[in-house]
Structures are given as structure tokens and as C-alpha cells.
Fold this protein.
Amino acid sequence: MRIQHEVAQDELAEFAENAPIGLHWLASDGTVLWANRSDYGSLDYARGEYVGRPLRDFHVDPRVVDELLRRVGLGEVVRNMPATLRRRDGSPREVVITASGHFRSDGQLLHARCIVQEAADLRQPRSADDRDLLLREEQRARERLGLLARASDLLAQSFEYENGLAGLTALALPLLGDFGFLELEEGERILRIARGEDPRVQTLAWSALEQVDAEALLSGKPTFQPQVDQAFLRRVSGSPEQLAALQELGIVSLLCVPLMSQRQALGTLTLCFAGSGRHHTEQDLALASELARRAASAVMNARLFKEARDAIGVRDDFLSMAGHELRTPLTALQLQILSITKLMGQEGAAEKVAQRAEKAGRNVLRLSALVNELLDISRISAGRLRLERTTMDLGGALRDVVQRHAEELTRAGCEAELRIVGDLNGSWDRTRVEQIATNLLANAMKYGKGKPIELSAERRDDHVLLVVRDHGIGIPPEDQKRVFQRFERAVSARHFGGLGLGLWIARQLVDAHGGTIRVESQKDQGATFEVELPIEEPGEVQEVPA
Amino acid sequence: MKGSGPVLLVEDDLDIAEAILDVLMDEGYQVAHATNGLEALDLLRTEPMPAVILLDLMMPGMDGPHFREVQLSDPKLAEIPVVVVSADRMIEQKAHELGISEFVAKPLHPQQLVSIVERTTH
């Protein structure tokens, strides 16, 4: 044993001396204790010029030696620490140093053992296997990049993103899965796109992986399961049927990434390996996440574009409607004024002239009401609506409103019944409260089919409840939210004119007062509008947000 | 009474209807008024045939195009000339689609209205 050991020692020493890599031992003060030929030779020094000298003398930055000794002294194995050495002729030599310490039993550092490698060596493949590995990695990296580029192309082709997303899902295969599917939430609807060889598998996978998708959608975080086991399958299956389906699918690896846009998950992309027996890597996860990011941003862009286009469409419709509405009283006005002019010269026409002047005056009022309504929209939209609250009597205001509309009520064939209960004093903006009542009354006349309209107001705790009920065409439940929106009406504009703003303005004014407005109605059963107005001003002066 | 028969005005807006009635009656026309297509058909069945129908397009109940459809399908009514009176920006195209060549855009000039009624009733 002993002889064998001595032989080994000799062989080891010679091996170290002639190794094609720099080796040296370094004392705790930085003096070179021993070095092999490759080490001092690479700097063009002789052994005697190198061993016994401070290593700092051979470093461009001597602090590297101190740092190395400090870390080694702490027991660390330093790996691939970059350093620049100086050759005899002053030229630099880029190296990386790997070092570990040899310690006394009391923990004191005896010396550091250092391996010095040419920095470039690390980047060189050293065997055929390594080269193949690197080539394969490079090939994969190129595939990944190509995939991302093609995905971006597909998504950029049109704002109709459905095709782009289908293309993207197909593109992810087979690199990222044997089959996969993408789900996108679109309001009430969920868009589902599946790709893979077997359509039955797709259908099965969808319903079976429901929970995985829902989790990613809720949390906004990916699910990465490169080793799918029974425990995982049991966790994500909501029923024995789902578990059976999952087991049948034979999924061995799965990843599910959310389509994130502005911290909101729009949908999910799920990719599974089954038949091929492959497993996902961290790189696959990163690539899938990037695909999902691009998909999400394409969807978001398309949605914003559509919103903008729709908004322009609504505005165009509104302008055309507003033009029509303004032209109506203008038409009457023009006819009346010109016929008055014609009558002026005739004898005995005084009474006719007076009648027509009165009618003309009515149309001027109608025009000015329309113009006020238009001004109100821009005021409200720009957040410039300010209330001028005074203590006022709501009952009196309602009586005034009904009185002012007596003639219109007659013309619409509607009788109005007003019921005021008790004293209704409160702090409101009188003009605006009258406007709320006027708009609700106008709405009731317009859609009331000439049947009676009931208005009532009474005190309820800290607010007043105002009710306007008609018995006209009613509003189907699905349209009830819409009627309070800007430029909306539940019925076709072809049949009923108007700006479609009355209820929207009413709601904005009620909001500004800190109150609420709602409607109860059924088709053909009339409509009941209920407004609650707090009697006291709630806190600060309210401004309506744009 | 002027012309070969009364004028039938189909117009839902009461202010406009009144103004048109005033203008035409000042000129000596006899004018009947309906507020939508359905009312107009009722009048056509019960009253003497008009010499011309002045037809608004946008009305609740039965609108102008719908009325025109019914009118054309009834041989007794199909021959009555119709003038479209509308504030629609596409009035010319819409009148053409209904097979009507005469139209007056709102806001309208009384003289324009009178001369078109004169022309179509003679």
C-alpha cells in the first residue's frame, strides 16, 4: 500500500507539473508557493522569476488577488473568477480562476489552490459531443426566435385577431407541445382555439383541464408542470370523469400561461406533451410566456381599435340624429315665419298672424331646449357641471314642471297626475332638479302611448323618493341598463326621434346630487322611474366626473 | 278648393304638421293629416282619395317606407303621387329607393312646398 502511494505521489506531481492548464498554490499573504510550467510559462517567466514572488505583481489589477484570498479564506470555492494577467512583455492575458482553500485544523488558511484557464477556453467546445450539444442548442434557439417572429407576423396581419391566435396556437406545436389550446375571455363569450392531431383529444383536454386554465386566469401566474404525476392530475380534476379523461390523455408534461395585458389576464395558452413523451423546460416556459404576451398585446390593440371605431360610429350616428332633431323645429319655424311675412300685407289677418307667432315661439323654445341639451353633454363630459344648491321645495318644483308641460301633455294625449306627500324641502340645485323631472316626464310622454302618467314625491328617511310612471311601450329588462347611457335608446331611432340623451342627463344630474335612479319595467307594461335624492348635501360639492 | 283633390300629409311631428297645414290651407288646399302610416291608410280607406300624399320617412308606428310598401301593393292606392318630405340627409337616395321622384328636404321653404304640391296635383 505504502509503495503504491509513493508512486502515485510522483505521478501526481509530474501530472500537475505538465498539465496543459495553469496551477498554482498561493500563501495566505499572496505569495506564490508553487506553480506548474503551464502557469508561469504562459506569462513567459521562468520558475525562479515567479515562485516566491507576490502574485499581485503579475495581475493588472492586484485587488483581484485580495478578493480571491478573502473569498477562499471564508471557505468558498471560487469558480471562474475573471482576471487579467500581465505577460513579461506587458501584454495582457485574459483568464478565469477557480480556487479553493486548504485549511489548518483551527480553521486558519494554509494556502489557496488555484486553477488558471484561458478565458477563451471556456467558450471553445472541447469534444465532438459538446459540439453537437451546442449545435443542437443553437438550432433550438433559432427555432424559438423564428417562432416568435412568425407569431408576431401572424398577429400583426389584421385587427381581426381570431385568425392570428389560431395561427399562433398551431405555431407553438410541436416545439412546445403535442397539442394545445388557447382560451380568450370576450365579455360573456369565451373564444376557444385548439390545435393538435386528434380532434377528440382536443375536446377531451378542454373540459378536463378547465381547472388549470381557471387557476392561471385568476392568479395571472403560469402553471408549469414538467413532470405530470397522479397527484397533480387528482389536484386539477374537478370530478372523477375529468380525472379519467386526464388519465386517458396520458399527459406527461404541461404548461399553462396567462395572456397578460396591463396586469389583467385576458385568457390562457395551454400546451401539453403526451404521446411524444417529451417534457417542458424552463426555456419552453419562457417562450410560451413570451408568445402569450404577444398574443395579449395583439388582442388588446384590436380591442382598443374597435372601441375607438365604435365610439366614432356612435358619435356619427349622434351627429346625424342631432342634425335631424334640430332641423325639425327649424322647419316648422321657417314655415311659420315665412307665412307670417306673407300674411302681413293682407287685411284681416291679424288673428292668424298672432296664432302663428305663438306657434313660432313654441318652436324657438323647442330649439333652445335642444341646444341646452347639447351644451349639457359637453359640460357633463368635460366634468364642468356644477350644482348651485339652495334650500328649495321639491313639491313646488314638480308642480311647476307639470304646469309648464300642460300643452305638450295635451298634445301627447297624456293626463298627468301629480301626488306630493308632505313637506319636501331639501338642499338641491333647483334648475337641475326641474331638469331631472322634465326629462323623465318627456320620456313618459314620448313612450307613454297617450296613456296617463303618474308623478309622485314623498320623503323617505334622509331622502326624497320621486316616481314617474307611464303605461306605454315599456323597456325590456335587457335594455334597462342601456337607456341611461349616452346616445342610447331602447327603441329604434327610426320610430322615435330625440337625441337619446334625456335619461343619460337625468342620471348624471341625479349622480351629481349624490342620489340614485333606477327603472322598473316590462315590455308593453309601461315603465316606472324611481329617483332618490338625499335631502342634505353629502359632503363636499359634487362634481360629475367626465 | 284648389287642385284636383285634397292633400294627405303624413307627418308625426305636430309642430311641422301644423306649419305645413297652415301654409297649404292659406293657399286654398284642403289638407288631411295623419301622424303615421297606419293612420294614413285608415284615412285613405274612409276619406276621398287625395291628389297627392306628402310623406315623412321617420315616424313611430308605421314609418314612411313601410307605408309606401303597403300603398304600392294596393292597386287602388298605388297610383296616388307621393312627395317625400324629410330631414334625412340621404333624402334623394331614399326617395329613389321607394320609387318616388319628388322630394322636399326639411327645413323647407313654403313656396317650394306650394309649387311642388301644385305641380303634382295638376
